[in-house]
# Entry
Amino acid sequence: GQQLNQSPQSMFIQEGEDVSMNCTSSSIFNTWLWYKQDPGEGPVLLIALYKAGELTSNGRLTAQFGITRKDSFLNISASIPSDVGIYFCAGPGSGNTPLVFGKGTRLSVIA
Amino acid sequence: DVKVTQSSRYLVKRTGEKVFLECVQDMDHENMFWYRQDPGLGLRLIYFSYDVKMKEKGDIPEGYSVSREKKERFSLILESASTNQTSMYLCASGYLAGVADTQYFGPGTRLTVL
# Structure
């Protein structure tokens, strides 16, 4: 089945810095989803991408659907302390797994 | 905004107890899901449902059952709780966009089984 590799696994950055993370799949995807999970909470959908090459923004967040359709990127500009959390990518699964998730990128912001 | 609510944020139960976790969504979504999340293992799908009274096994259904009597409500049942079921349980609802479910999650229930 599909596997998602998300990198980096964790990041420590200074407040105000820009952040980049990515996700690659072992097969071609038609959809990429990006979620953020705050400590002790459920994941929140940030951005959904449905077309190769698509670039979508949500405030300081920008996500891109890679043209190879096997990767996606999430960028956060001018990070702030509330950006702390775990960021997950997700895409279509197969069989008894409708959606497959990456293992997450844990972001820490140092004020 | 999509609203997915879960009946409890924290729950402590004893080994052997029957446990009910309730999930309600208000967006008229067809699809609902139950996951558990454990450190180092990520999100693992337990059961899902694409319609009322319908259920499908996910990756780790053993020790769990589900019930979907109404479209907006999806219940997860631990028939006889065990300590290895201590975990964060997440409910989601969603709709099919393209070929993937766009899922929205509830706040989670942290279950401890003693």
In short: Chain A has no helices and eleven strands.
